């Protein structure tokens, strides 16, 4: 038997991911672009509806209030997505609501000064204004770190090895949004999961007019089929005698969004009243802003790979964080109950349908703004049962996580040092947040439980986030453990050319600002 050559059992590292139909600056036809943009809009609805649906009732808000918050969140998401794709990193990323802000927001909701208000609507408005004030103050963290280029300086301590657990846990860290939610209504969740995998992978070569319809529009087709099936089950009375939790998860008529939504409503700043400011609330919210910063950093790097672009240079990454801070400021001014971060599921969809076009994401932003103003139509799409979204998340979060693991190709994984750092960071990134979650479920408060509420919120928020824990552990170990003699093992020779804007000629193609704005804001 002939000896096996090394090139037959190994694959050379690749700066850009291959196999995409359209990369960041190439575009499908306008008809396809509109359909693909609508698909990203549908996917973004999951988080935009889930967060207000959980928080508004706890605050004392009505179904009308919930609909208004959903509309406002979608409206601001559309604006923030346009700002990010035009002036931020310019990557094809949807900027949506973030679960990282749940801990400080719930802490504000439980504040005794609001809990004692008897009128539910007044309690809702008072709590909303307090959340707005905290978001407005906390947004300054990302604005300062981003536009001052401090985050660019910090990012120089990152290596491909250090980024592997961060990007991987941006996807894996959201496992509780996946099959745990699918399991609340298996009769629609599992068919959605199976159908989505079948269409996007096994039947991806099926073409109509040379367009791989099933791969490219798998989400739209599966959502239409399973949503109709769910509506049929609801109309036939299949859930009439089932437990309330099952009915809430499965039925298509339990959200009360369509009946409560106005026909036309344009969100505007300060529509809930003047924000109120409290130092303790703002400090706890700053932790969520830091978590959002870390999670978005990982998501931007994943998006760059799935858009077949080079990794964003430090200057571009910091610029994107600054614009994300502007987005959180808008969240506070409009009153969305949460801050902004990169939508991980939409990043995963770039890989699923192999379309990394920036224009598609900008069209989806247009849909968000349009349907947030046409309340009834937006509410119709927002009434899709959550298990259907969760089924798709099982695939899309996994794709993002695997992109993180793909950075291992630039490192030496025959090094015990690298194996130690990667393994420990991944394990602690999953284990520590899980401990904080389990503790909170049992004790109704986080492990940090002192008389200083702001301190509790800060620590509990930081350690609830898997990517943030992974970043702390990985970057610390990577820059302290035998770092002087391990530059090649860490992947730094490959990484170095992407740290500055002029380090690689392709950066200009992917990350140059539009309208010739680089004349006024020269890249470093």
TrEMBL record:
Record's bilayer topology term: Multi-pass membrane protein
Keyword terms: Membrane, Transmembrane, Transmembrane helix
Source domain of life: Eukaryota
Membrane spanning stretches: 38-57, 93-109, 130-151, 157-175, 180-202, 217-239, 360-382, 388-407, 419-436, 458-477
Gene Ontology CC, one term: membrane
InterPro entries in UniProt: NCS2 (IPR006043)
Pfam families assigned to the protein according to its UniProt record, in alphabetical order: Xan_ur_permease
Main location: membrane
GO molecular function, one term: transmembrane transporter activity
Subcellular locations according to the entry: Membrane
Keyword Transmembrane in annotation: yes
Entries under NCBIfam families matching the protein: NCS2_1
PANTHER family with a match to the protein in the record: XANTHINE-URACIL / VITAMIN C PERMEASE FAMILY MEMBER
Family recorded in the similarity comment: Belongs to the nucleobase:cation symporter-2 (NCS2) (TC 2.A.40) family.
Protein name, entry field: Nucleobase-ascorbate transporter 2
Origin organism lineage: Eukaryota, Viridiplantae, Streptophyta, Embryophyta, Tracheophyta
């Amino acid at each position: 038997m002939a000896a096996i050559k090394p090139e037959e059992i190994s694959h050379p590292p690749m700066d850009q991911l291959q196999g995409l139909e359209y990369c960041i600056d190439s575009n499908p036809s306008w008809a396809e672009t509109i359909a693909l943009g609508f698909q990203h809009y549908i996917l973004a609805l999951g988080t935009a509806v889930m967060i207000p649906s959980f928080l508004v009732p706890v605050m004392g808000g009505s179904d009308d209030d919930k609909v208004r918050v959903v509309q406002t969140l979608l409206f601001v998401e559309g604006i923030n997505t346009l700002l990010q794709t035009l002036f931020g990193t310019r990557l094809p990323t949807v900027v949506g609501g973030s679960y990282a802000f749940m801990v400080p927001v719930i802490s504000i909701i439980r504040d005794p000064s609001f809990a004692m208000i008897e009128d539910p609507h007044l309690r809702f408005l008072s709590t909303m204004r307090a959340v707005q004030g905290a978001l407005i103050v906390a947004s300054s963290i990302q604005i300062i770190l981003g536009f001052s280029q401090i985050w660019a300086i910090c990012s120089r301590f990152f290596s491909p090895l250090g980024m592997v657990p961060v990007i991987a846990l941006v996807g894996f860290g959201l496992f509780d949004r996946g099959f745990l939610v699918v399991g609340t209504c298996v009769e629609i969740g599992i068919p959605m999961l199976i159908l989505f995998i079948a269409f996007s992978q096994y039947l991806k070569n099926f073409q109509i007019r040379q367009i791989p319809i099933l791969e490219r529009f798998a989400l739209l087709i599966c959502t239409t089929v399973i949503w109709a099936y769910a509506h049929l089950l609801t109309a036939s009375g299949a859930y009439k005698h089932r437990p309330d939790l099952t009915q809430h998860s499965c039925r298509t008529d339990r959200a009360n969004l369509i009946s409560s939504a106005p026909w036309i409503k344009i969100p505007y700043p300060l529509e809930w009243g003047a924000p109120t400011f409290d130092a303790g609330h703002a400090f706890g919210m700053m932790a969520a802003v830091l978590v959002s910063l870390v999670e978005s950093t990982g998501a931007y790097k994943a998006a760059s790979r799935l858009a077949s672009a080079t990794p964003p240079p430090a200057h571009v990454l910091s610029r994107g964080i600054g614009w994300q801070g502007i987005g959180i400021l808008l969240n506070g001014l409009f009153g969305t109950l949460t801050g902004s971060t990169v939508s991980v599921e939409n990043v995963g969809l770039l890989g699923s349908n192999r379309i990394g076009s920036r224009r598609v994401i900008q069209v989806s932003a247009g849909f968000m703004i349009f349907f947030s103003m046409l309340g009834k139509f937006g509410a119709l799409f927002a009434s899709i049962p959550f298990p259907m979204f969760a089924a798709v998340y099982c695939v899309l979060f996994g794709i993002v996580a695997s992109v993180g693991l793909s950075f291992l190709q630039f490192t030496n994984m025959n090094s015990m040092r690298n194996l130690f750092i990667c393994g420990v960071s991944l394990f602690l990134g999953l284990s520590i947040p899980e401990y904080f979650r389990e503790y909170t479920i049992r004790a109704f408060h986080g492990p940090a439980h002192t008389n200083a509420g702001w301190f509790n919120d800060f620590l509990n928020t930081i350690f609830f986030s898997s990517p943030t824990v992974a970043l702390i552990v990985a970057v610390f170990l990577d820059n302290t453990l035998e770092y002087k003699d391990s530059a090649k093992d860490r992947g730094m020779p490959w990484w170095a050319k992407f740290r500055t804007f002029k380090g690689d000629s392709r950066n200009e193609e992917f990350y140059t600002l539009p309208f010739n704005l680089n004349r006024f804001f020269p890249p470093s």
